[in-house]
Design goal:
alpha+beta, two-stranded antiparallel ribbon, flat, binds zinc ion
């Protein structure tokens, strides 16, 4: 799958925009949205120039199916 804005390999598909984005364009898009949200919500006090954004890719949470059997319960959570 190729990026909709350039010819690099896309790393994700934005459903709301219908675009496939490569890492570079995704980062730009994400940064723009993050900066806008930060301004709107005033997450950063005035005076700070540097904004660090952390991304977690591909986190998966497994929800254990609950059973009413006696005694045993297991839960597994994986994040990566
Ligand atoms: Zn691109």
């Amino acid at each position: 799958m190729k990026c909709s804005k350039c010819r690099r390999d896309a790393i994700l598909f934005q459903r709301y925009s219908g675009l496939h984005l490569c890492e570079q364009h995704f980062n730009r898009d994400f940064e723009a949205k993050a900066k806008r949200a930060i301004r709107e919500h005033r997450w950063i006090e005035s005076g700070g120039d540097t904004v660090a954004v952390a991304l977690s890719g591909g986190a998966r949470i497994r929800a254990p199916s609950s059973s009413s059997s006696t005694g045993s319960s297991a839960s597994a959570v994986t994040s990566g």
